[in-house]
Amino acid sequence: MKLADEAGALAAMRHSQNRVVTVAIDQMMFHEPIRIGDLITLEAIVTYAGRTSMETRVQVIAENPISGERTHTNTAYLVYVALDEDGTPTAVPGLVAESDLEKRRMQEAAERQAYRLAQRELAAKG
Ligand SMILES: CC(C)(COP(=O)(O)OP(=O)(O)OC[C@H]1O[C@@H](n2cnc3c(N)ncnc32)[C@H](O)[C@@H]1OP(=O)(O)O)[C@@H](O)C(=O)NCCC(=O)NCCS
Degrees (nearest 5) of the Cα angle 43, 44, 50? Predict the structure, then answer.
């Protein structure tokens, strides 16, 4: 989980060219085990950019270094906020979807973000 957070943060830092703070981590499910000795690869992309927030998708792949067998163990969605020098949320560049796949991913990410914010509002109301 720590590695997923670091990978997501790096993708968000590259996109925003600023330091970032984690504001939300969605439910994380492991479909397959990661075994001791496995090589772990994390692939992180920015899937949504709001005004100051970004959603990243992190895919975790475990590889048996002897057999070379690669297994997709889980996917996590994490949200970061870009901060300026004073630690205040600051605007991030927009995200341009070119392919149909990217457009669909961006739409899905916007829906996830709307759900998170609705949950936040519910939690605030107690
Ligand atoms: C991140 C933080 C600076 C945001 O400050 P804030 O006063 O809540 O600012 P805002 O309400 O304007 O939110 C900033 C952005 O985060 C988004 N956001 C806030 N809470 C969110 C949540 N629970 N889920 C998803 N996005 C969220 C807002 O939608 C907004 O995005 P936008 O600018 O793209 O529209 C503040 O909440 C904070 O410091 N949180 C603690 C973070 C932390 O300590 N993380 C480390 C965990 S180990």
Answer: 165
Task: Set out the domains of the chain in order of their start, with CATH numbers.
Answer: 2-125 (3.10.129.10)
* Nearest CA owner, ligand 1 atom 17: 53
The residue whose CA has the least distance to atom 5 of ligand 1 is 89
In tens, the pLDDT along 28-62 reads 888 888 999 999 999 999 999 999 999 999 999 99
CA 9 to chain CA centroid, nearest Å: 8
81 CA to centre of ligand 1 in angstroms: 6
